[in-house]
Specification:
The complex is a heterodimer of chains A (365) and B (341).
Chain A lengths: L1 H27 L6 H4 L8 H11 L5 H15 L11 H36 L4 H15 L2 H16 L38 H35 L2 H8 L4 H14 L2 H7 L1 H15 L4 H10 L9 H29 L1 H9 L6 H9 L1
Chain B lengths: L9 H14 L1 H28 L22 E4 L11 E4 L11 H37 L1 H16 L2 H11 L17 H9 L4 H14 L3 H8 L4 H37 L11 H8 L1 H4 L14 H29 L7
Antiparallel strand pairs in B: 1-2
Classes of the chains: A mainly alpha (365), B mainly alpha (341).
């Protein structure tokens, strides 16, 4: 098991390195005058000055060397270094992390809380009106554009329940942006005054509608899958055996069918970790949540920073999101491997093999 | 789905599938709806431009009031445009004006639909071709090919597609915006379609890989091999026809995903360039104040017209719904457990 965990994490690290390398390379190809980003250019700036500025910033070195330098800085100093348009990608990302983390984790939890019972209800009464209406809901839910759904729900919650339109309230401290921020505007931190909010209650109140929108992005698909899985499981022999033993219907469904039928769902959640970030970009844009998706949209659109594509910021964002995704999917993979040895073997076949010396020391541990 | 067409020869199989599909009432209705939408966008729009005498990009100052608020649905507007020759009489706006510029919303939705559908078609074609090729090779040969394709699939699947498409689209694809294939497509359509396409192949690839793996074990493959057919010939002539049904079902899913993604890209301002209508850009125009920085929309004179939010969302919804229902109906029609229909 430990060997599996190590291998799973190692292949995650490989994935991150590969992805950041591609991003670094792609972002480096953007046609822009890098010299004028690292120094202040005027009409009188000569070519020699530009070359000198590039050399001073180390941007005239080969891309591979720059990439190695970038990686080394992360490993050695736990820092992404200076940005080109923003002062420090470190602080930008640090202030964006809590919003995305609470959105994705809470949203995933809500997805499961909605999808599993609804899928079970549909599977237990196949072809009943309840089943049909749930299936209709799932088809319609898949067809509505997430932006449309998000904005409709936002407006509805605002007018019906007086829910806050947007903004993020930190879970712990009393610090909040005073006004809704447009992409590109700096997000003010540690605001004091009547607008200040924070603490678990206000955090949950501000996140409730975003969580719902996030969950509704996944529930239609998951509901269908859980329904199909559970219907297949309910036809299995061991369920019949459980019934024959005289187990009550509740015990049959909860202990025997649901546990075996929904277990394989975990690897699916792992594969959907990337889609979760896509959903987070949608939700953060609608609700103006200052999270990673919001930051990514701002950083990649260039125009918000006077046409500068901030390479360190973009790569660092991809790195952070990569770590987030790899951790999420590794957690789901490890959990399902722990639950089911067959899954462990199947997943392990696709992982990189451990080098001999590592394998032995891990096996001993 | 795995046993799909293995029960009948491909030729009679399709007739059977079509017969069963016609009994799927919802699927048939969706197919008719989808056909109407596609015909409306590709043939109806040029026809209407001829009939009404104005195009989707003609500005009508008379279609907005003094506060730049566009006219509502079913309006007659004086036929005096800013960028076309003035004609006598009035012209007709079925869904009203599109915003402060006073263009015809209905024509813009049809023209935008053409763009969105073209992008969806290009991206789906690329995704399916790449996905089927990689998936079939991985499932057939196994071993190293399978491992490489499997890793690639996971790499693409595990990371946020939206982010990758934006990154590629903003950096590399911009250089290919000028490709229009002899004026067949609007500028930027091919670049965006290809960019989305290269990130849409993994679902078909996974499905095709699993199907090929199970098909490999069938007797007809062994029979073909005994007659001396080469591996690639067996794959091409004997295995691929069996994949067609499930691949079409998955293609409808990929297409609806692409349409949603394209709209999202336009809403986030990463889609085709501003001014060109697409369903996403029409949506973002209506909701400009929230998603795209549009200082106009905060001024009190500019009151938003709720109709403008309804039309593009409704069109988008109906198109994706029809695609999904056609896919569902096809899946049912292809299901061998349903007996001879």
């Amino acid at each position: 098991m430990l060997a599996f965990v190590v291998r799973r994490l190692l292949s995650g690290v490989l994935l991150i390195v590969l992805l950041t390398f591609v991003t670094f390379f792609v972002a480096n190809e953007i046609p822009q005058n890098k010299a004028c980003i690292v120094m202040h250019c005027t009409q009188q700036t000569t070519r020699a000055e530009m070359v000198a500025a590039l050399h001073k910033a180390g941007l005239d070195r080969p891309v591979l060397v720059q990439y190695g330098d970038y990686l080394w800085r992360i490993v050695r100093h736990q820092s992404f270094g200076p940005g080109w348009a923003v002062l420090s990608p470190d602080s930008e990302i640090r202030s964006a992390l809590p919003a995305t983390a609470s959105l994705v984790l809470g949203g995933m939890l809500l997805t499961m809380l909605l999808a599993v019972p609804l899928g079970a209800i549909a599977a237990l009464r196949p072809r009943s009106p309840v089943d049909h209406s749930l299936l209709t809901f799932s088809v319609v839910g898949l067809a509505v554009h997430p932006f449309v759904l998000g904005i409709l729900l936002q407006q509805f919650a605002m007018h019906a329940f007086g829910a806050p339109r947007s903004l993020y309230c930190p879970l712990t401290t009393h610090a909040v942006p005073a006004t809704p921020t447009f992409p590109g505007q700096p997000i003010p931190l540690n605001v004091k005054g009547p607008d200040a909010c924070g603490g678990p209650l206000q955090w949950a109140a501000h996140m409730a509608v975003p969580w719902l929108v996030f969950a509704l992005f996944f529930v239609p698909l998951y509901l269908r899958m859980i329904r199909t899985r559970l219907m297949d499981t309910l036809g299995e022999r061991y369920v019949m055996t459980a019934r024959a033993k005289g187990a009550g219907e509740r015990r049959v469904v909860l202990r025997h069918a649901l546990r075996n039928g929904v277990g394989p769902l975990l690897p699916m959640v792992a594969l959907d970790a990337g889609t979760a970030i896509t959903a987070a970009i949608y939700v953060e844009t609608i609700f103006a949540l200052p999270g990673l998706g919001h930051l990514a949209v701002v950083g990649l659109s260039g125009e918000f920073f006077d046409g500068v594509y901030d390479l360190p910021l973009i790569t660092s964002l991809v790195f952070t999101i990569g770590v987030f995704v790899v951790l999420l999917s590794a957690a789901a993979d490890i959990a399902s491997a722990w639950l089911d040895p067959r899954v462990r073997e199947r997943t392990a076949r696709g992982l990189i093999p451990l080098p001999g010396f590592l394998r032995r020391s891990v096996a001993r541990a | 789905m795995a046993e799909v067409a293995t029960f009948s020869a491909p030729s009679s199989g399709w007739a059977l599938v079509w017969r069963r599909f016609r009994q799927e009432r919802l699927g048939m209705a969706a197919l008719v709806g989808l056909t109407l939408i596609v015909l409306g966008c590709f043939m109806g729009e040029p026809l209407l431009v001829r009939l009404l005498g104005h195009g989707p990009d003609t500005f009508f100052p008379s279609a907005v009031d003094i506060n730049l608020r566009p006219v509502g649905p079913w309006s007659h507007v004086r036929n005096e445009s800013l960028n076309a020759a003035a004609q006598p009489g009035t012209t007709f706006f079925l869904l009203g004006g599109d915003g402060p510029l006073g263009r015809d919303e209905f024509l813009r939705i049809l023209a935008g639909g053409r763009l969105s559908l073209e992008i969806a078609f290009i991206a789906t074609a690329i995704g399916v071709v790449v996905g089927v090729t990689l998936g079939a090779l991985a499932g057939w040969f196994g071993g190293l090919v399978d491992a490489v394709v499997g890793r690639m699939t996971e790499l693409v699947m595990a990371f946020p597609i939206l982010l990758l498409v934006i990154a590629i689209g903003q950096t590399i694809a911009v250089r290919f915006d000028a490709i229009t294939i002899h004026g067949l497509f609007e500028p930027g359509v091919v670049a965006l379609g290809v960019t989305i396409g290269i990130f849409s192949w993994f679902y078909p690839a996974r499905v095709v890989r699993a199907l090929t793996q199970s098909l490999r074990e069938y007797e007809f493959v062994e029979a073909a091999r005994m007659t001396g057919a080469s591996e690639l010939r067996i794959l091409r002539k004997h295995v691929l026809p069996h994949l067609a049904g499930p691949v079409i079902v998955w293609a409808t899913l990929v297409a609806s995903g692409v349409i949603i993604l394209e709209a999202a890209l336009s809403i986030l301002n990463f889609g085709v360039k501003l001014g060109t209508a697409s369903w996403g850009s029409l949506l973002s125009d209506a909701w400009g104040s929230l998603l795209v920085f549009n200082p106009m929309s905060n001024s009190p004179q500019y009151s938003r017209n709720n109709w403008l939010m309804l039309w593009p969302s409704l069109t988008l919804f109906l198109t994706v719904l029809c695609l999904a229902l056609v896919g569902d109906g096809l899946r049912n029609a292809l299901d061998p457990r349903r007996g001879e229909g």
